[in-house]
Specification:
The complex is a heterodimer of chains A (242) and B (274). Chain A has 242 residues and is of the alpha/beta class. Chain A contains nine helices and ten strands. In chain A, helix 3 packs across helix 4, helix 3 runs parallel beside helix 5 and helix 5 runs parallel beside helix 6. The longest helix of chain A has 16 residues. Chain B has one domain: MetI-like fold. With 274 residues, chain B is an all-alpha fold. In chain B, helix 3 runs antiparallel to helix 10 and helix 10 runs antiparallel to helix 11. Chain B contains eleven helices and no strands. The chains are: A alpha/beta (242), B mainly alpha (274). The interface between A and B is medium-sized, with 35 and 26 residues. Adenosine-5'-triphosphate binds next to strand 2 and helix 1 of chain A.
Chain lengths: 242, 274
């Protein structure tokens, strides 16, 4: 079976900053891939290229058999790919429930009641059904991020992208979000996660990738990459964050 | 189905009573009352000339209100279009919008109104002559139409800046989150960005409305029989400038103070609804 995400030699420049310099990566359905790397190494840019929040200059990305070329394809890819951001990016003017139903009704054209039922089911799943009718800013950071995950899941995506989902959280709230992600991984969701949470990577990831200066430096299972890396660059980076 | 029964949407958070209370304590209503009272006193105790003036200019009140409201609705629409154009990624669209805004803001409104009423029709007529199109040769400017056109053209430029600032005040992550859920640009604007931006821009939009209301007095020079023009006509016929212009000023004051209170009321209401 073809990989669900195929990234082929992708380059991306911002002015004269080279954010990505020839990244190639294939991710299979159901795989969980964790990306680590120093700040500015292009991790976010790579994720954002996968659902075309960022356009790339060169190379190709094929998601679930759909190449990202026309605007139509971009939108159909985006409905298949959920994204969770560091800053949550919940819609502050809408109640939690409406955050979850908006795209379902507008994009997926679901009936309002179906969307609501789906949303309530997902809120139950991420452990905060009682917050359905609150506004996002009335929730703690951890709760907000769980709502953001539920909002992405409400579109029934085949792939979930996480860009440092726990780095904006107070330490005591990190685990509740990681638990939700762990469950997702167990259910077989294809996930690409930018995160330095080693515990999560070891528990959930099939592969860990180290990026530096817009390139993939090394990839291996988390166990090997974290404890027995072959590249000097990887050792240096790990010695800094551990 | 079963799950939904556990969750009842709580009642609307702010009761109308609370909102009313806020309004009651808005002391500026008293100023408006005071001005209205003053007008009543003047026309009651000094009907000559105040009652005469009021009757004479009263048909101008509806003209002023009509011109202002119609222009404002158009300004809300074209201002939004221009504001979005100024944020466009497409250089040509952004360029055109920017030139429009800069040019319009650099020319006095009075001059613009003169242009639309006096110059524009004669441009049309010349074009008609050049192409021998009879309907264009005989073109006559309709004062109200040209006044509304002029006000709209000018104020849309200013309003576009208000929209632009409002939209830019919403963090980029909001658009990205909406797009990543598969929403189109238009859907993201409609459901995510604009509702948030509207809250931010409400005060400056209200301010634009009141300024427009006052600037609408300029249309009196292009043959629109608004409050100001009716005041001038009355003065020309009766030579009592002080009384006339006091009355005209009081009428404008009633309109602007009232508008300011309404703007404030909408603001308080939207703030409490959060
Ligand atoms: N919108 C942008 N405009 C200009 N430069 C950008 C933009 N986005 C990213 N960059 C640059 O591209 C490079 C890669 O950025 P990216 O955000 O992908 O790094 P990252 O690995 O996610 O870093 P961090 O760990 O800090 O989030 C950096 O040098 C960054 O400054
Ligand atoms: Mg990043």
């Amino acid at each position: 079976m073809a990989p669900i995400i195929q990234i082929q030699d992708v380059h991306k420049h911002f002015g004269h900053v080279k954010a990505l310099r020839g990244v190639s990566l294939e991710i299979d359905k159901g795989e969980v891939v964790v990306i680590i790397g120093p700040s500015g190494s292009g991790k976010s840019t790579l994720l954002r290229c996968i659902n075309r929040l960022e356009e790339f200059d060169q190379g190709q990305i094929i998601v679930d058999g759909i190449p990202l070329d026309s605007a139509e394809n971009i939108n159909s890819v985006r409905t298949e790919v959920g994204m969770v951001f560091q800053q949550f990016n919940l819609f502050p003017h809408l109640r939690v429930i409406d955050n979850l139903t908006l795209a379902q009704t507008v994009v997926r054209k679901r009936k309002k009641q179906d969307a609501i039922n789906n949303a309530l089911m997902l809120l139950e799943k991420v452990g905060i059904p009682e917050k359905a009718y609150n506004f996002p800013l009335q929730l703690s950071g951890g709760q907000q991020q769980r709502v953001a995950i539920a909002r992405a899941l409400a579109m029934n995506p085949k792939i979930m992208l996480f860009d440092e989902p726990t780095s904006a959280l107070d330490p005591e709230m990190i685990q509740e979000v990681l638990d939700v992600m762990l469950n997702l991984a167990k259910e077989g969701m294809t996930m690409v996660v930018v995160s330095h949470e080693m515990g999560f990577a070891r528990a959930a990831a099939n592969r860990a990738i180290l990026m530096d200066e817009g390139m993939i430096v090394e990839e291996a299972t988390p166990a090997i990459l974290f404890s027995n890396p072959t590249r000097e660059r990887t050792k240096l980076f790990l010695s800094k964050i551990l | 189905m079963a799950t939904s029964q556990h969750f009842q949407p709580p009642p609307v958070k702010t009761t109308p009573k609370e909102i009313n209370e806020k309004i009651k304590f808005d002391r500026w209503w008293f100023l408006l009352m005071g001005v209205i009272l003053l007008i009543i006193i003047l026309i009651t105790f000094k009907p000559d000339p105040f009652r005469r003036i009021l009757f004479f200019v009263s048909d101008g009140i509806s003209v002023t209100i009509f011109t202002t409201l119609v222009s404002f609705v158009l300004v809300l629409i074209f201002g939004l279009i221009t504001g979005l154009a100024r944020l466009s990624k497409i250089t040509i669209i952004r360029g055109i919008a920017t030139v429009y805004v800069e040019v319009i803001r650099g020319i006095p409104l009075l001059v613009q109104l003169m242009f639309w009423y006096f110059a524009f029709p004669s441009v049309i007529q010349s074009v008609g002559q050049a192409l021998s199109i009879p309907s264009l040769i005989g073109y006559r400017a309709n004062p109200i139409f040209m006044a509304i056109l002029g006000l709209t053209f000018c104020y849309s430029a200013y309003m576009s800046e208000v929209y632009r600032a409002g939209i830019q005040s919403i963090s980029r992550g909001q658009m990205e989150a909406a797009r990543s859920l598969g929403m189109t640009f238009v859907q993201s604007m409609r459901y995510v960005i604009l509702p948030q931006a509207l809250r931010v821009i409400l005060p400056p939009v209200g301010n634009e409305f009141i300024t427009l209301l006052k600037d609408s007095s300029l249309v009196s020079v292009v043959a629109v029989a608004d409050i100001t023009r009716r005041g001038r006509e009355f003065m020309a016929a009766n030579f009592i400038p002080v009384n006339t212009w006091v009355m005209v000023a009081l009428l404008y004051l009633v309109l602007t103070l009232f508008s300011a209170r309404i703007v404030n009321w909408i603001e308080v209401k939207t703030r409490l609804e959060r």
